[in-house]
Design a protein that fits this description.
Elements (H helix, E strand, L loop, with lengths): L1 H23 L6 H23 L2 H25 L8 H21 L7 H27 L9 H20 L30 E3 L1 H9 L6 E3 L3 H5 L7 E2 L20 E4 L4 H12 L5 E4 L2 H7 L7
Parallel strand pairs: 1-5, 2-3, 2-4, 4-5
């Protein structure tokens, strides 16, 4: 945790220095300058992710690639949706950047103990949504018209810290350093090492398979993270409702124990992925997503409980 806190402050400082260079020296906003700025700034972000996994140097190019990808998405979005320099293309590119970081962090930086694609998606969506909202709230402070007295870079620093913190915590929360060790002395040199387990054990379960298990009378722990109103309108038989925004504060109400399999669903997926981040923080790592979520259950015409 403390590494991420320190990392947020370092990234905020790097972003503030970058802003000072842009405004003090009047750097012209060209595509080349945007790519260089994105790559350099995100290299610091990659260092934070690398420190979380115990691989700082390996994290540097991951950050740079995400910075280049974020800049590229910005210029594409400017061309097709909003030609304003500080328009809607900026928060959209910010969200894309977080998704790129989540994929590179979970599948490359952490190899061979990679996160599953479902875990990458849940963390990436949480980082993108939370980081996107935070960035949108301070975007005018960061890049809006400065006051008559000029830009206050202390305020700029704290605004950047506010913008970067949610995404970085979403990607690093509960992440343990990747273990690296040489071959055991008791292991034959010709014996191949066992494959490293994936960090997150979540996987999908189809709606038909779930209903079959319900009908067999299995003891299941099913968590519906939609709103109370949606739940009252119909839900999977036996499901418990905890809206995704309250999962972290209601861990005691989550059915089962840390050793139990937990079947998770929402309306279409995003809320379940964000809830899974909170659940993992609370020690619930045996998560199964209901494939297609409630939309798939309804489309299949399966039995509904009210």
């Amino acid at each position: 945790m403390y590494k991420t806190i320190v990392g947020v402050l370092i990234v905020a400082a790097a972003a503030s220095v970058g802003d000072a260079i842009w405004y003090t020296f009047g750097v012209r906003h060209t595509m080349a300058a945007g790519f260089v700025h994105g790559a350099l700034l995100l290299t610091a972000v990659g260092a934070v992710l690398g420190a979380s996994s115990g691989r700082v140097l390996k994290g540097l190019p991951i950050g740079a690639l995400a910075g280049i990808g974020g800049a590229a998405s910005y210029y594409v979005l400017v061309a097709i949706m909003d030609r304003r320099t500080y328009g809607s293309a900026i928060p959209a590119a910010w969200i894309i950047m977080w998704l790129i970081l989540a994929a590179l962090d979970g599948r490359w930086l952490r190899a061979p103990a990679r996160r599953t694609w479902a875990a990458v998606a849940s963390r990436g969506l949480a980082a993108a949504v939370l980081g996107g909202v935070a960035f949108y709230l301070v975007m005018n402070t960061l890049w809006g018209r400065p006051p008559a007295s000029g830009r206050n870079y202390v305020v700029q620093f704290f605004a950047w810290a506010f913008a970067w913190a949610p995404g970085l915590f979403a990607l690093t929360f509960g992440a343990a350093p990747v273990a690296t060790s040489g071959p055991s002395r008791t292991t034959s040199a010709t014996t191949p090492p066992a494959p490293a387990p994936e960090v997150d054990s979540d996987r999908p379960i189809t709606v038909v398979e779930l209903l079959e298990r319900i009908d067999r009378g299995e003891t299941l722990r099913i968590l519906d993270v939609r709103s109370e109103g949606e739940f009252a309108g119909g839900h999977v038989p036996g499901a418990v409702n905890i809206p995704f925004t309250t999962v972290l504060s209601r861990m005691d109400d989550v059915p089962g124990t840390a050793e139990d399999e937990l079947i998770l669903y929402c309306g279409h997926g995003p809320r379940a992925y964000m809830a899974a981040t909170a659940l993992r923080h609370g020690g619930r790592t045996r998560i199964l997503y209901m494939s297609g979520h409630w939309a798939a259950w309804q489309d299949a015409g399966l039995r509904v409980e009210r």
